[in-house]
Specification:
The chain is mainly beta. It has one helix and ten strands, in the order E-E-E-E-H-E-E-E-E-E-E. It has a six-stranded mixed beta sheet with strand order 2-10-8-4-6-5. The radius of gyration is 27 Å and the shape is rod-shaped. The N and C termini lie far apart (about 110 Å).
């Protein structure tokens, strides 16, 4: 006879889902062109039949940018509209969560953001696009190769002062000049 006549081997899948966030430029100008953002998985990993991957995407405004809670809500709505504007087949957006279904072919989720000129002289502003909450329905490992990108917005508004005078020379003791 045999003391052990069977052996059980568990095979674990070494595939890890890593989300990658990238951008076309770290700086944009008010009233200028848009920055293009891209979200995909490293190595083209796609869900298997019956599986899906998901990740939360958010925009974070830096302190001191003068963004009020009300305007942040408006900007977040614009952000989510841009994010969901042209999703590849097999990808859905619910709230701020992207879900990559088993029908997804690996095409990147791309979206553009630009900065409107606001006619205010201000220092450089910046915001982050951030990924969080990566998961798979299979219970596999999910994470990030790059989870945050920062975009700086350079101000298009310049404040210029002009000083002029009515006359370049005045007589001593009796003249006056006007400056504006």
């Amino acid at each position: 006879g045999y003391q052990n006549d069977t052996v059980t081997t568990n095979i674990s899948d070494a595939t890890q889902v890593l989300f990658d966030l990238s951008q076309s430029s770290a700086t944009i100008s008010e009233g200028g062109g848009a920055d293009t953002y891209s979200i995909t998985t490293v190595g083209g990993v796609v869900p298997t039949a019956g599986e899906s991957f998901s990740v939360d995407v958010s925009i974070i405004f830096a302190n001191g940018n003068g963004v009020t809670d009300a305007s942040a809500a408006d900007l977040n709505e614009v952000f989510l509209t841009a994010l969901g504007g042209s999703l590849p087949t097999g990808v859905t957006l619910a709230g701020n969560t992207l879900t990559f279904h088993d029908s997804w072919d690996g095409a990147a989720v791309t979206f553009d953001l630009s900065a409107a000129s606001d006619a205010l002289a201000e220092p450089t502003e910046d915001f982050d696009i951030h990924l969080s909450g990566a998961s798979t329905t299979s219970g596999g490992t999910a994470g990030y190769q790059n989870d945050t990108v920062t975009t700086s917005i350079s101000d298009a508004t310049q404040v210029l002062f002009d000083l002029s005078q009515s006359s370049a020379a005045i007589g001593e003791g009796g003249g006056a000049d006007t400056y504006s």
